[in-house]
Specification:
Blueprint (H helix, E strand, L loop, with lengths): L4 E5 L4 E4 L7 E6 L1 E6 L6 E4 L3 E3 L6 E5 L3 E6 L7
Antiparallel strand pairs: 1-8, 2-7, 3-6, 3-8, 4-5, 4-7
Amino acid sequence: MSTPTRFHLHDNGTVRLLPRAEGLRLRAERGTFLVTQEGDPEDHVLRGAGELRTGKRGLVVVWALSDGAFEVDDEPLRAA
């Protein structure tokens, strides 16, 4: 089991992430973030206690639209 990495960003801050084989799971703790991934035509808004799973390939950029914090985890999804 992997340990999530926590990021704290100020308004307009960015983080660049490279997903591994299973993609990334992003979980917002507070704040609002715009998430974009190379090869994905959609941009995604992550806010509040929201969660987002990225694709397996392509650079992921997280842009803070307000001060906030989020976690990144590359643990694979588990079957129920």
